[in-house]
Amino acid sequence: MLQSATPTGKPAARRRTSRLLGLMLILVTLALALPAGASAFLPPGAGWAWLDPGTPADLHAVAFSDATHGWAVGNGGVILATTNGGATWSKQNSGTTESLSAVACADASHGWAVGGKYVPATASSTSFILATANGGVTWSTQGSGITTDLKGVAFADATHGWVVGTGGAILATTNGGATWSKQNSGTTADLTGVTFPDVTHGWAVSGTWVEDQGYTGTILATTNGGATWSTQVSGVSSDFTGVAFPDTIHGWAVTFDGAVYATTNGGANWSVKRLGSGSVHPSAVAFPDAIHGWAVGGTEDEPWGALIWATTNGGATWKVQQRGGGPEEGVSAVAFPDATHGWVVGNLGTILATSTGGKPPVTLKLSGLRSGAMKLGRRVTARGTVTPTSLAGSKVTLKVQKKKGAKWLTVKRVKRTISASGAYIWKYMPARRGAYHMRASIARTTTTAAARTTWRPFKVK
Predict the structure, then answer these.
(1) Distance between CA atoms of 17 and 348, rounded to whole angstroms?
(2) Which one of 7, 220, 318, 452 has the minimum C-beta count within 10 Å?
(3) Considering the domain boundaries, does residue 6 fall inside one?
(4) Which among 364, 322, 340, 350 has a CA at the least distance from the CA of 452?
(5) CA-CA distance, 226 to 217, in Å (whole number)?
(6) Domain co-membership, 401 together with 433
(7) How far is 171 from 148, CA to CA, in rounded Å?
């Protein structure tokens, strides 16, 4: 079942004025990790590359229906779309100049974006829901029927969807947004995010400022499509900033003070862990399955910083992943339609992307082959290195081909184990004279990105 990867909206009091910083680009060719043609820059050891969307607008939310089709939304009614995994982005006409807080998509054609604004003159808020059924070629306004700031949106499929907002507002639709109806959340808390892995099971989180108390947070749940909502977690002395459920039993919610709430039984019980040491401030979370997850945010010194945390064991442990170049501005939202393809968005048009689950792309080298001709009966010593060295114990496949006429025929194929230092070695003795070439490769697995060298020629006389 497709699920929105929409991050939650942030309390207005915590939104910062963007600082215009100079671009710090580290120009390294990215050959393996991103789609060809992407404007991407990746320093050594980084698993995330910066993509240039061509806009300086602050981006608040991102959603992808698959590894190629996605939207990002933000200030000034900006809607950006890509159909090639972020290699290129195009601006779509939203029909509004107001800030968009969240976005969700059911497939490559159907998408929704929500937002709202506070009107000081009347001490009231306005809200709006935008929808597209043609991949964003056109966006139309759907009537919400309420005057409150909308912060989150989720669609379980192309017809069943929910939006949440301030004052405990929850709206639901069963016809793609043609009509929306109110649901009773049972709270007046400001709901900041929502997720639905199917049409009946859903969760919403809140972050409400209470005078003289600070922020408080709750987790609400429904098992009947929102006909009734119940409180699963309450009294949290922080605001929830993100929630993700890839299925009906595994879920995670993060708070601004760095707590990670997790459940493996649909919210009947929740455990609490810290995202990292020190004071960290996650702003969104995404889990495409029960094992792999990512959170983004900042630290105490830089609350709206640019940190990306990842887990491969369901949140038992988290590690910081290295991002690429681009503006050193904050990140606010993350989306992962699967365990390898992900995007993070933030201030000043920041978009980061990975196709390796945020892991550094694999680099593979092959050397030791003599450029001149060698005599028959001697061994060819092929040496190579692989990075990262965490691939130690994996196998490198070495293939030798001999030229026969205009064709190359494979004459030998072996596998060699990568050592703890990332090195491998193979000694090969050709059986016949002629022109040869050799190549090393690593196959893609669930934990390893594919990599291969170019063909290295040698002659035997």
Answers:
(1) 10
(2) 452
(3) no
(4) 364
(5) 19
(6) yes
(7) 11
Residue 400 falls within a domain, yes or no? yes
Judge if 247 and 334 occupy the same domain: yes
- pLDDT for 447 equals 60
Q: In total, how many domains does the chain have?
A: 2
pLDDT per residue as tens digits for the range 112-158: 999 987 777 777 778 889 999 999 999 999 988 888 889 999 999 99
Of 9-13, 55-59, 95-99, 190-194, the range with the lowest mean pLDDT is 9-13
Residue 423 belongs to domain with CATH number: 2.60.40.10
Structural domain boundaries enclosing 404: 363-460
Under 8 Å between Cβ of 58 and 76: no
Residues 41 and 170 in one domain: yes
Rounded distance between C-alpha atoms, residue 134 and residue 50, angstroms: 28
217 in the same domain as 188: yes
For residue 2, being part of any structural domain is answered with no
Q: Do residues 163 and 204 share a domain?
A: yes
CB-based burial label for 84 (10 Å; 0-12, 13-18, 19+): middle
Statement to judge: residues 264 and 369 lie in one domain:
no
Query: Given pLDDT bands bounded at 50, 70 and 90, which one contains residue 23?
Result: very low
Q: What is the CATH number for 256? A: 2.130.10.10
> What are the two backbone dihedrals, phi and then psi, of residue 422, each rounded to the nearest 5 degrees?
90, 10
CA atoms within 13 A on the CB side of 307: 23
Based on the fold, state whether residues 340 and 414 are members of the same structural domain: no
CA atoms lying within 13 Å on the CB side of residue 371: 0
| Phi, then psi, of 144 in degrees rounded to 5 | -85, -30
Whole-angstrom Cα distance, residue 151 to residue 169? 10
Cβ within 8 Å of residue 205, ≥6 positions away: 8, 191, 192, 193, 194, 217, 218, 219, 220, 240, 241, 242, 243, 253
For residue 379, what are its two tokens?
């061994």
Q: How confident is the model at residue 324 (pLDDT cuts 50, 70, 90)?
A: low
The whole-angstrom separation of Cα 391 and Cα 362 is 9
CB contact at 8 A, 396 and 447 = no
Angstrom distance (rounded) from CA 305 to CA 282: 10
- For 363, half-sphere exposure in the C-beta direction (CA atoms, 13 angstrom radius) is 16
Place of tokens 């639901």: 172
Q: Is the whole model's pTM more than 0.90, yes or no? A: no
Q: Which of 173-187, 368-382, 418-432 bottoms out in mean pLDDT, i.e. has the lowest?
A: 368-382
Mean per-residue pLDDT of the chain = 87
